[in-house]
Amino acid sequence: MTVGHPPAWQQQAAPVPAPGPWATRASRSSSFWRLVAVEARKLVGTRSDKIVMACAPVFLIGLMALFTLPQTNLASAGRQLQPMLLVIQLGLLLVFATVIKLVAGEWQYKSVQPTLLVQPSRMRYLLAQGTVLAGVWLVCSLVTFVLYPLLIKSAAQGLGHNYLLGSRPGWVLGVTMLATAQVLLTALIVSLLIPNTGGSLTVFFVVVPMLAVARLALPEVFGLIYPLEAAWHMAGDGAGWPQTISSLLVWLTLLAVSLVVLSRRDAG
Q1: Per-residue pLDDT tens over the stretch 120-164
Q2: Rounded Cα distance, 84 and 146, in Å
Q3: Which of 41, 211, 231, 248 could form a disulfide with 179 if both were Cys (CB 3.0 to 4.6 A apart)?
Q4: Distance between CA atoms of 117 and 114, rounded to whole angstroms?
Q5: What are the residue boundaries of the structural domains of the chain, listed by start?
């Protein structure tokens, strides 16, 4: 008598092996602060990024000296503060270039895919990047706030003028933080709307400075769309409330449009 296989109804399925610890970790969503840490590392992810960020403070100090020491009229607080607005827009170009590369480059080279595979929420991803940019904003603002008064004080005293910004540190800090935030938001908006590193850098480094020159020539006209108009207004040299309000509305609208475009952009 041959022994056959038991009927199908008596056969038992092989036990499923228990998932290993790697599967448990994979099933968990990454914490928000871990995403922030990942985005922060991307700022210095390559050797060129490290070199650019290392050169950024030297470039900033050099531009500060260029715009402060040759000044010939520093008799008022407004005159002493105005060069700082140019310093912020131009002296932090290396930092803003790295930010543009971080935001636009991820979509151009599709390196955003691993991040969205780990956590598919684009809003969470944007908030993580926004937290990193907020840290960059604070560092840049504080460095400028500490270094600029030292140079402008030296320039004012060299001309025989009193240093007037020391008695209004809150005003100086407010203008510094507002101007830095507006330039950084401009870089973010451009990089979100143009997901190409070269294109974003071209627009930011060519069109935005040209807009600044045009604003100096015709503030009543170009102040309506100049991204730093609110900072100039706060510094006491704005074109007026209509220009300030119009500028804020234009760039806040562009920010909203860029977020909508990001939410619908194909990551494949």
Answers
A1: 777 888 888 889 999 999 999 999 999 999 999 999 988 888 999
A2: 12
A3: 231
A4: 5
A5: 31-264
